[in-house]
Amino acid sequence: MDSCLFTVLVRCSFRGGRGGGEGDRHVEGRMAMRVRGPAVGQERKPRTSPRIQAAVREAKVDEKQKLERAKEVLACPVCFDALVPLEGNKNKLQCKTMKSVYYEKNSKYWDLTVGSRSNGLYQDPNSRLWGVSTFQNPFVSYLYERGWRQGFASAGFPGADKELEMALRYFKDVKGGILLDVSCGSGLFTRRFIQSNAFGAVIGSDFSDTMLRETWERLDADPSIKVEDVLLVRADVGRLPFQSASLDAIHAGAAIHCWPNPVAAIAEITRVLKPGGVFVGTTFLLPLSQIGEVVGDDKLRPFWSALRSTRPANQGINYWEEAELKDLCEMCGLTLFSPHYNHQHPGLGKGRAPPYLLAASGKLSMNFASSPSRKELFI
Asked: What kind and span of H or E run contains 164?
């Protein structure tokens, strides 16, 4: 199985990182004062300088501000209008247009799916697809970072830290903005993006309740992260609960192949990105893609079509031909698609062999307000 890095860049300028660096800076202060020694048997408590105390308070305030900034981009998944806090209840958000519509937060995340308001009678047919239902299994969520994700190395994924480095290179022009880690799974990259200090706010979203709970547990266990200041959202990637042109960066790690409707998902990502925003994602290519690079993908299409016809209809997994990814982007207005390959793989030589990293650049013109805006993409 091959893998590819699928990146979309829309340029913008961000400033600041996680807390602007203030929360991570060690501030030293020196005080001269006379103090009474401790009583016999008592241990003297260390004193903290006022400057350090002020820096800590400032860092806490800054994290709260980033959380509030992230919440400001949330939208009703039905009408996409803004969600506003319900007076007197910090765990409820009200649709600004449909004032009778509310969304609630449980102890760990906000459920902003349309189905969250169901009385339980309606069953989403997509939830029965293998690519969706598998990751709602608590056992899979538990195993994801305990062996499951590590197995992607055999398909060419270089590992979370190297994948983060690659993503941050594409995000370098959008530092300081709001990043959405869509289909975040167990929070493997959500945590790393927070720790990178590269973004003004990081939001994690997934459709799976059990994955979001695993994300919360891992965030809570990380001493460098205050989980209460991280926004986690249950969301359908085909109907993202964010306002149009509100996000600066979107990441989807090893996720695109699991989306029930990739066209709707990429269209939604386009909608919520600001002009100059960036989309970075990874996914799997079809088998023998490296041979297609030599003989031409058109020669392999009959084989790929036959292979796809043998897969169960309820599998819900999409492996990709490079030209399909290009077509998918162009359908959503992304153009000038050009691939970039990682040519190093022991025993397989050069070319579109695992690890396969696909990058493309292009432009997307959209009208925001009354003036044309440009989105430049790396895919």
From this structure: helix 160-170
